[in-house]
Amino acid sequence: MNPQTVASAPTTEELQELALEVRTYLAKRREEGAFTPQADAWTHEWNPEFSRELAAKGWVGMTIPPEYGGHGRSHAERFVVAEEMLASGAPVAFHWVTERQIGPQLLKLGTPEQREKYIPGIVRAEIAFALGMSEPGSGSDLASVRTKAEPVEGGFIVNGQKIWTSSSHRADYVLALVRTSQEENHHAGLSQLIIDLKNTEGVVARPIPASIGDDHLAEVFFEDAFVPEENLVGVLGAGWQQVTAELGYERGGSDRFMSNMALLEAFVGRTEPRPASTEKVGELVARMLGLRTLAAGVMESAGAGRDFAIDAALAKDAGNVFEQEMTYELRGLGVPDEDEYLVGLLEHAMLYAPTISLRGGSAEVLRGITAKNLVGR
Ligand SMILES: Cc1cc2nc3c(=O)[nH]c(=O)nc-3n(C[C@H](O)[C@H](O)[C@H](O)COP(=O)(O)OP(=O)(O)OC[C@H]3O[C@@H](n4cnc5c(N)ncnc54)[C@H](O)[C@@H]3O)c2cc1C
C-alpha cells in the first residue's frame, strides 16, 4: 500500500490530474537530487529557490486573483497541490506560511497599495513573512500581548518582543500583533502591523537554539522601531478579530496532519512488512482519510467565504493528536538501526512531537474554542 496515493486521492478527475502532475514533478525533482524528503519540511526546510521553482509552475498563490499576479484557481485545486507538497516532504518552508495565511489576509484586509506591494511577491515566492503573535508570557493568552505600537506622526513607534517567531531571522517581514492602545477589555486595542525585518532600525531577529534539531525557531526584538502608518493592516484596534480569523488559515489545512508523511512513506518503503506494521499503517492511513475530510470541509468554507475558525480549531486538534500518535506508533514498531535516513526521520519526528500540539495554538486552547462554540458563547 502506498499511503501517499491513498491519502492524496482527490475527488474529481481534474483534481486527480492536477495532483498527479504535481506528484510526478516532485518525484522527478527528488530523483534528480533537488531534495531529500524530510519530516515537517513545511516548518523548517527553507529553500527560496525551490519555492520559486514551484511558484513558476503556478503552484504558489493559486487562489489569488490574476490582478495580483495569482492564478485564480479554486480552493480545491490549492488543497490538492498543498497535499502533494506535504506528501513529498519537499522544502517548502520559505513560502508555506506566507502563502497559507498572509496572502489571504492581505487580500481580505490589505489596502490597495498593500495588495500591490506584497501579494505579487508572495505569489512568485520572492518574499517571506513570519507570524508575529506569541510573546514571552503571551502564548495561549494571546490577547495579553504587550508589544506596544505607539501612534505617532506618520506611523507607530514599536517596543517589545515576539518569541517563537518561526524563521523570522530569515524572513523579510513579520505580520505582528501589537497593542496600539490600552483598553479595559484586553481583546480591544490590538492591531496588526507589517514590519520590515531587514530594513527597520531597532528591529533584531535572531534564532533560538532549540533541541528540536533545526534552527527555525526565532525571536524578534523591537526597540523604538518606527513603522509607517501605511503598514497598518485592516482596522486600528481590530487586531484581535483579524488575528483570530487569520488563525483559521493557520490551523485548518492538511499541514496539521501530513507533516510526517515523509516518515510514514519511508517506513512503508524501507521496512519489511510484518502483520503488526501492516495493520498499524492501514489504521493510520484510514485515520488520515477522516482528517482529510475535516480539512476539506475547512477548505470548502474558506472557498465559500464562510467563517471557519471553529472548524479549523477542531481539525487542528484532531490532526495534532494523529501526528503525535503516528510518530509514537512507528517508534513502537521499530526501524532498522542501520537505516540512517529512516532513523533520522524518526528522531526528528520524536523531537518535534511535543511541539505539534503547541504551535499554532495548544490542544487545550483549541478544545476551549470548540467547547465555547458548542455551548454557544
Ligand atoms: C514549533 C513551534 C513553532 C511556533 N511558531 C510560532 C510562530 O511562527 N509565531 C508565533 O507567534 N508563535 C509561534 N509559536 C508559539 C505557539 O503559538 C505557542 O507556543 C502556543 O501558543 C502556546 O503558548 P506558550 O508557549 O506561551 O505556552 P503557554 O500558553 O504558557 O501554555 C503552556 C501549557 O499550558 C496550557 N494552558 C495555558 N493556558 C491554559 C488554560 N487557560 N487552560 C488550560 N490549559 C492552559 C497550554 O495548553 C500549554 O499546554 C510556535 C511554537 C512552536 C512550539
TrEMBL record:
PROSITE patterns found in the cross-reference section: ACYL_COA_DH_1
PANTHER family attached to this UniProt entry: ACYL-COA DEHYDROGENASE, ACYL-COA DEHYDROGENASE FADE34
GO terms assigned for molecular function: acyl-CoA dehydrogenase activity; flavin adenine dinucleotide binding
Protein name: Unannotated protein
Keyword Coiled coil: no
Originating species: freshwater metagenome
Keyword Oxidoreductase attached: yes
Residue ranges constituting the Acyl-CoA oxidase/dehydrogenase middle domain according to the UniProt record: 130-224
Signal peptide: none
Keywords of this entry: Oxidoreductase
Residue ranges annotated for the Acyl-CoA dehydrogenase/oxidase N-terminal domain, each copy included: 12-126
Assigned GO CC terms: plasma membrane
InterPro entries named among the record's database cross-references: Acyl-CoA_DH_CS, Acyl-CoA_Oxase/DH_mid-dom, Acyl-CoA_Oxase/DH_mid-dom_sf, AcylCoA_DH/ox_N, AcylCoA_DH/ox_N_sf, AcylCoA_DH/oxidase_NM_dom_sf, Mycobact_Acyl-CoA_DH
